[in-house]
Design brief:
This protein has 279 residues and is α/β, with parallel strands linked by helices. The chain contains 11 helices and 10 strands. The N and C termini lie far apart (35 Å).
Length: 279
């Protein structure tokens, strides 16, 4: 039996048709930001629990999921401005931002640009804290490379085996839900532009991560840093970069866990986040 899937809602963010989920009507406002190429489905095993205590939004970022995929730079500034417009359109004055991977970097960039609108910051295997990143994503910067990364059911299984610590623990229902979304037209073009803007063959572009790391100490919002100890996409050493620079932070390393602690260890993840939000 499938987990209860929240109803899709759509809103125009400028001229970008944007899909999101919204659950909960009390407590703090939380906005969940997925990884590059991800979608709201990555939060399927978190949003219900968090929404028992808080007002929670999960959004398909511009270029991902079922949201529009315009021809754009997909720079961190572009993504932060999209989040700003999302909040303004829904009359959200202040929120906690929780971002995984690229979503984490977008959350950091938003916090640097609009600090008064961030109550707390949750970084989950965040992009943008160092040069190192898995070879598969560096290769995606090559011309026509994403042609070879267009998914099929077998490829999804093999990618998941690398991205998580133990793929057998990921519910089969999640794979079935995610596969049609990965086949959405123009997804590969948006991913290619995202990769080329932020990466090169050697890793994360120095201009990207150095700008973030240099400014981390200016962030005063309380931060929770979550990382999988066995993350093969972005190494756990990046968690310590954030922990050393952020003035007001808590660090939680999940053992026997890869790039998606919220998907791989949802019970521990949900408990950790709820405890942080209650502080």
């Amino acid at each position: 039996m499938l987990t209860n899937i929240p109803p899709d809602q759509y809103i125009k963010i400028g001229d970008i048709n944007t899909r999101y989920w919204k659950l909960g009507d009390k407590g703090k406002t939380i906005i969940l930001l997925h990884c590059a190429g991800g979608s709201v489905e990555f939060w399927l095993y978190n949003i219900h629990i968090l929404a028992q205590h808080h007002r929670v939004y999960a959004v398909d970022m511009v270029g991902s999921g079922l949201s529009d995929k315009p021809s754009a730079s997909y720079s961190l500034t572009y993504q932060a401005e999209f989040i700003k417009n999302f909040m303004d359109t829904l009359n959200i004055e202040r929120a906690t931002l929780a971002g995984n991977s690229m979503g984490g970097a977008a959350a950091i960039q938003f916090t640097l640009m609009f600090p008064q609108q961030v109550e707390k910051l949750i970084l989950i295997g965040s992009f943008g804290l160092g040069k190192e990143i898995i070879l598969r994503l560096r290769l995606a910067t090559l011309p026509f490379a994403l042609h070879f990364f267009r998914p099929n059911p077998q490829m999804i299984g093999s990618i998941l085996t690398v991205d998580v610590y133990d793929s057998t623990l990921i519910p089969q229902e999640w794979n079935k839900i995610r596969y049609p979304i990965m086949m959405i037209p123009h997804r590969d073009k948006a991913l290619a532009q995202l990769a080329r803007t932020n990466l090169n063959l050697f890793g994360v572009r120095r201009a990207i991560f150095s700008a973030i790391v240099k400014q981390l100490a200016t962030i005063t919002a309380p931060a929770l840093i979550i990382w999988g100890k066995q993350d093969r996409i972005l190494p756990v050493s990046h968690a310590y970069v954030a922990a050393e620079a952020l003035l007001n932070n808590r660090l939680h390393i999940f053992d026997s866990c890869g790039h998606y602690p919220h998907l791989e260890c949802p019970q521990e993840f949900n408990a950790t986040v709820l405890e942080f939000l209650a502080e």
